[in-house]
Design a protein that fits this description.
- The structure is a single chain.
- This protein has 8 helices and 10 strands.
- By secondary structure, the chain is of the alpha+beta class.
- The strands form 2 sheets. Strands 1, 2, 3, 4, 5, 6 and 7 form a 7-stranded mixed sheet that branches.
- Strand 9 and strand 10 form a beta hairpin.
- The longest helix has 17 residues.
């Protein structure tokens, strides 16, 4: 089973307010099907999750996967135990959704096997408690406008420019980026329609509001951006998107 990567062609994140349980976002997500993880799943007496990267055993945080299985187990009121093996091709902490797409693929496998239906409340619970990117990966949509905590996913019907992702192999912790983002005293004004126009014209400087924060955490990213003025960060990084004219 393939779990595809994604890129964020536009990404706005709002600072958390008193009533927010996590950050609200407004983004354009696009599946990138040339890069994917491979997952095998079998029903088992107990749940196990193993992973390999470049034919070597690798360690991953299993917490989110186990939380997702527990969520669906509660939906069907019975225990769900699986033997899961993941072949990682999407680099960890790359801004390409590698962890989220794996969890979503596992959830989709369970959903089909147990004939589970998810409603809007379920998607919001998933976005808040499991992962903001997961509702997009569950949706089956190739290009989507995503908002709220990540639970509002709609088909994006406008044109998008040609692009290519560049894997820098600079890992950046999503948690660290958001912590640093929250410490900023000023946040730029942002208008979705204007950002879309900039995307289509190849004006990429402000397409990702988290990019300046990521650069503070990983200054080496500046070297990658100097090579082209058509490059910007995907998600929390450290992968880069380059617009192809």
């Amino acid at each position: 089973m393939k779990a595809y990567s994604k890129v964020n062609l536009i990404l706005k994140v709002w600072p958390k307010t008193k009533g927010d349980v996590k950050h609200r976002i407004h983004s354009v997500f696009c599946l990138y099907k040339h890069l994917y993880d491979e997952i095998t799943i079998k029903i088992a007496p107990q749940t196990t999750v193993t992973c390999e990267f470049h034919q070597q055993e690798c360690k991953i945080d299993k917490t989110t996967t186990l939380r997702a299985i527990k969520f669906l187990s509660n939906k069907v009121n019975e225990p769900i135990h699986l033997d899961i093996h993941i072949i990682k091709n999407i680099p960890i902490m790359s801004g390409l959704g590698g962890s989220s797409t794996d969890v979503a693929a596992i959830m989709n496998w369970i959903i089909r096997k147990w004939h589970i239906r998810l409603d809007k409340k379920d998607l919001k619970d998933i976005a808040i408690n499991i992962g903001s990117d997961i509702p997009f990966f569950l949706s089956g949509i190739n290009i989507a406008e995503v908002s709220g905590y990540g639970e509002i996913v709609n088909v994006f019907k406008r044109k998008i420019p040609k692009f290519k992702p560049i894997i820098t192999n600079i890992p950046i912790s999503t948690q660290d980026v958001y912590k640093a983002f929250d410490k900023l005293k000023k946040h730029p004004k942002w208008d979705f329609q204007n950002q879309y126009k900039q995307l289509m014209h190849g004006e990429v400087e402000s397409l990702n509001v988290l990019q300046p924060t990521a650069i503070i955490l990983k200054p080496i990213l500046k070297w990658w951006f100097k090579k082209s003025n058509k490059r910007f960060l995907s998600g929390t990084g450290g992968s880069i998107i380059e617009i192809i004219r």
